[in-house]
Amino acid sequence: KAGVTQTPRYLIKTRGQQVTLSCSPISGHRSVSWYQQTPGQGLQFLFEYFSETQRNKGNFPGRFSGRQFSNSRSEMNVSTLELGDSALYLCASSLVLGGSEQFFGPGTRLTVL
Amino acid sequence: DQQVKQNSPSLSVQEGRISILNCDYTNSMFDYFLWYKKYPAEGPTFLISISSIKDKNEDGRFTVFLNKSAKHLSLHIVPSQPGDSAVYFCAASAGNQFYFGTGTSLTVIP
Fold this sequence. Notes:
The structure holds 2 protein chains of 2 kinds.
Chain A: E1 5-7, E2 10-13, E3 19-24, E4 31-38, E5 42-50, E6 53-57, E7 64-68, E8 74-78, E9 87-94, E10 103-104, E11 108-112
Parallel strand pairs in A: 2-11
Antiparallel strand pairs in A: 1-3, 3-8, 4-5, 4-9, 5-6, 7-8, 9-10, 9-11
Chain B: E1 4-5, E2 10-14, E3 19-25, E4 32-38, E5 45-51, E6 56-59, E7 62-67, E8 72-77, E9 86-93, E10 98-100, E11 104-109
Parallel strand pairs in B: 2-11
Antiparallel strand pairs in B: 1-3, 3-8, 4-5, 4-9, 6-7, 7-8, 9-10, 9-11
């Protein structure tokens, strides 16, 4: 069974631009969560999608948004990029909403210049 | 505000000895706790979990201990192996949202 895939793996943008990251969950998994990982803050929860609806949201500004498609694939968008948005963005899939066992993708390394 | 804290950013242990990784939390509503291991350039992988109704869960070389009164969680690895060298994250949940610590980088010295 293929694991969670994320594209692209690396991305360089400049301040003010916007970016879209993609995540394909494990086949059959309906929940996709997004996390931001930075050295000082660890893994911080962004949001979780289940059945094409955002079910949970962390404490991030509205510049961070996402969506989920009918095939459970998810995209995350960050608008008006700031230097502080440079981070590793991880998505995780699980079978059910709030599933205790999450399977993570390799992440997208975003660098904002 | 960091609800889950891992106060040791790094830990070095000799091969064959015990590795103890610690985690503290502040939210008494957390009822499920997990440990993840992360290698460079890979996403975290689930290692072991424990429910708040238990105080210990064991899986092979890995044991997680939960002290609810102290709001403290620890992961014991015995015996430690060089392949255990990775960053370990603890996580806690109350409902559907997971809160992660900042990670502890474990180095097992051959």
